[in-house]
Design brief:
By secondary structure, the chain is of the alpha/beta class. About 45% of the residues lie in helices and about 20% in strands. The strands form four sheets. Strands 2-1-3-6-7 form a five-stranded parallel β-sheet, sandwiched between helices. It has a four-stranded antiparallel β-sheet with strand order 8-9-10-11, covered by helices on one side. Strands 12-14-13 form a three-stranded antiparallel β-sheet. The N and C termini lie far apart (about 50 Å). The N terminus is likely disordered.
């Protein structure tokens, strides 16, 4: 039986996490000094399709943030001799706007207030349900991207998300409100695949069989409009996964 050193196990664990990312996931940084928590949270987020980066102290977290565009951070309040609250406050002072979900064994109201006042976006006390953590990370990711894309040019086609106006060579193209909601979900993903159910949740607010059927019809109609306007295929269907907006011609 092969016995690996602790450092080797950690390296392999991190490699496995990164290899498990699906196309519709986010880049999530977990900052915690507890190996059990890192493994539990890391594997749960990996299964949900995210690319996971892990750090055990503030210095490593800062290094990762400097090199990778992290979309959500899961941060433990206590990091050995360091403080997650202090790290969060310093990041906010430096202009880092990455959404932060605090984890802490302290669940009292005062502790939650401290986390939010330090610049955190959400606070989850331990012990927590893994499904709830995954849902909160998803919600923070959606909040991060909401409203990010304001205007998009795709060849002769221009999409103005603030004015809900689509134009082709300055001629307006009719787009319904539901079509705009779908376009918003795809545009905010910056070319990444958005899962069918995620599109439904953003455009309809819930996920039903009827909604799935309607989504296929509306995307088909929207694809015909956009392809004719842009002169190329803009919405790509990834079988069994979701849709992606082709940003590059």
């Amino acid at each position: 039986m092969l016995v690996l050193r602790y450092s080797q196990r950690c390296e392999i664990f991190e490699m496995v996490l990164r290899a498990g990312r699906k196309m519709n996931g986010m880049r999530v940084l977990i900052v915690d000094d507890d190996e059990e928590t890192l493994e539990l949270v890391g594997k749960a987020l990996q299964r949900d399709g995210h690319e996971v980066f892990i750090a055990r102290e503030p210095e490593s977290a800062r290094s990762i943030l400097d090199q990778v565009q992290i979309e959500v951070m899961v941060l433990d309040v206590m990091l050995g001799q360091s403080s997650g609250l202090e790290l969060c406050a310093k990041l906010r002072q430096d202009g880092v706007e990455t959404p932060i979900l605090f984890l802490s064994a302290r669940g009292a109201v005062n502790a939650r207030v401290e986390g939010l006042e330090a610049g955190g976006d959400d606070y989850l006390p331990k012990p927590f349900a893994v499904r709830e953590l995954v849902a909160r990370v998803r919600a923070l990711g959606r909040r991060r991207t909401a409203g990010r894309t304001h205007r998009l040019s795709l060849g002769a086609l221009t999409l103005d998300f603030d004015a809900h106006r689509a134009t082709v060579d300055q001629q307006e193209l009719p787009v319904t409100r539901r079509e705009w909601d779908i376009l918003r979900a795809l545009a905010d993903a910056n070319g990444r695949v958005v899962a069918f159910d995620d599109v439904l949740e953003q455009a309809w607010g819930d996920i039903t069989e009827g909604g799935r059927a309607s989504l296929e019809v509306i995307v088909s109609r929207l694809r015909r409009k956009l392809d004719a306007a842009a002169g190329r295929s803009l919405i790509r269907t990834v079988r069994g996964s979701g849709y992606a907006l082709e940003l590059d011609g």
